[in-house]
Amino acid sequence: MLSIAALYGFKQYLPAKIFTETGSTKNVVVDSLMLEASEGADSAVAEKDTLSNTKISFQETNGVKFPAETFEDYKGYQHLIAFYEKLMQLENTQQGNVRIAYFGDSMTDGDMIVKDLRSSLQNRFGGEGVGFVNITSESAPSRSTLSHSFSGNWKTQSYLNVKNPRKPFGINGHVFFVKHDTVSPVWVKYKASKLNHLSSLNNATLFYGRSGNTKAKMQFIVGADTITKKLSAGNILNTVPVSGGDVKSFRANFIAADSIPFYGFNFDDGRGVHVDNFSNRGNSGLPIATFNTNLMKAFNEKLGYDLIVLHYGTNVLNYGSLNYSWYEKKMSRVVAHLRECFPGVAILIISTADKSSKYGTEMKTDSAVVPLTLAQKRYAVQTESGYVNLYTLMGGNGSMVRWVDDVPAYANKDYTHFNFRGSKKISDLIYSQLNNGYEKYKALRGGKPLPKEPKRDSVFQVARPKPVQPVPVSKPATDSFKLKPAAQPVKKPAQPAFKPAKPTVPQPKVNQKPLEPVTAPVIKDTANAQ
């Protein structure tokens, strides 16, 4: 009783935010690199933003130059030109592929947000398959885009808590080893969902690393068939296909596979857009700096990435500091390392979303949200990366409270994470900004000839595209997040195919070059007012 009386007596002298007021977060893990980096930052004072009044100009890239931007409204479309160029080639020719690596934390756990972004891109540009999937995953039970199960005799090392792994971490930040077990088999099983573009396991291929083991085998069980394949582990990165085509499900048994580092399976049809979800609960993004450069180059050689998305921040808000200069500097080094690992790749930074904490008796935007978004924007500008301010896109100050209180709700009662409905809205916001930049790029591109494409596959032969006029936009209301439907609804094809449509334009006059029609529908940007 004396303690309670003392607490009430001293309440007026205590900080407004002293205890966590939100519900418990399931399986929260915070990476060790962030714990080390954030030491001593809790008591620091927020630094003055020296870029707040800066006008950011760009240098021409491949004949295209976006208008200058203010720091406040920075999006960095100029730095996504390499990605936009690949999209335009894909849209014009209906051939080739574009691949995105989406790195995130618990916000993308279970393929949340990413699955809807993948769906939007594949609806427009084509593509079949869920992409790269781990050997084991803590989020497997909650993933709706794939049925994934595995035996309990796997040993996992993660870059969140292991500094010196037995073998280098894969592109997913993990490395998996079989536990020696003479009785129980070591296995993993995958089954395709019934979702659009994900109804098959396309070209299922195992990725694994180097080992001196020469006796290892894989036993693939596909329906009533059993296929046994030897695992040759002589290269830094090795692959073996499950079968010659698409399957609905399979089980893989690992036989005498001790000491071999396994990374996961890839599922894609090799055409259109593919998005890999590399989510890790508790990740700040800093562990990416531990990637082995040579191994990442080997992954890039086989998969070929055009865009890397870094969607972090949720786990960096938990320490009460308003000074994120340490995070800004370290994430700048992460971006530099990624460019070394994946030469020529475009990079997109997505800021933290709004998060609410209890001040007194009221839930309000956490005081650390805005300082962190500014730090994320600063390192995006400094590293010449694209930037999505998720905090402002979802409504800014107090928006998380509105998303939780809305009926139906769009976020969970922890005032941090989105539910499936909210994840779809967030995906639409991100897609809308990307699409806005893409349409502006096509308009700036005009009828200029395309540069040769040295990366992967064959060089695309593309006719001069018809100039695209900028799409007029108007600022939506705070709660308006829905994109307008495409001019022509996209129907699920019976079989994935990328055959150019027959030209519908009339024959050109003499001395005029024919225009190649763009058959893919254009989605107008209505969700992003800027």
Automatic annotation (TrEMBL):
GO molecular function: hydrolase activity, acting on ester bonds
SUPFAM superfamilies: SGNH hydrolase
Superkingdom of the organism of origin: Bacteria
Start-end of Low complexity biased regions: 483-502
Record region (Disordered): 464-530
Designated name of the protein: Membrane protein
Species name: Flavobacterium subsaxonicum WB 4.1-42 = DSM 21790
